[in-house]
Amino acid sequence: MTKCQKIxxxxxxxxxxxxxxxxxxxxxxxVSASAKSDSGAPYDETLCASYKSHHxxx
Length: 58
Ligand code: SF4
Hints:
The chain is mainly beta. The chain contains one helix and four strands.
C-alpha cells in the first residue's frame, strides 16, 4: 500500500526546504547515522543525508 507522507523540515539553509511551509520539497530523503552517533541524543545520532546547502563549499 502506498502511503502519502510529507517531510516536515525547518532547515532553512537547505536548497530543498520550503521555509514558509516548514516542508522538504523532495519525494523522499535519505536519513543516515551521524558520525557522532554514540550519545543517544537525536542531534548526535541522525542527520539528513539529502541536505544541500545554499552556500557553495569552500
Ligand atoms: S533534504 Fe533534508 S535538510 Fe533538506 S529540506 Fe529536505 S529534509 Fe530538510
